[in-house]
Write a structure and sequence with these properties.
Distance between the termini: 18 Å
Shape: extended
Structural class: little secondary structure
Oligomer: single chain
């Protein structure tokens, strides 16, 4: 969710274990700060 709107969703039942992560960045603008808050992963 970004500002109260869901922007992405993913589901893959073939992956039974492992790790998750998120990544963001820019190649064009130096000095950009990117902050992730309340990152949540749920098991259905």
């Amino acid at each position: 969710y970004v500002n109260g709107f869901q922007v992405a969703q993913a589901q893959d039942s073939t992956l039974t274990s492992g790790d998750v992560g998120i990544l963001a960045g820019t190649f064009d603008t130096p000095g950009v700060d990117i902050v992730f808050d309340n990152f949540v992963v749920l098991q259905p």
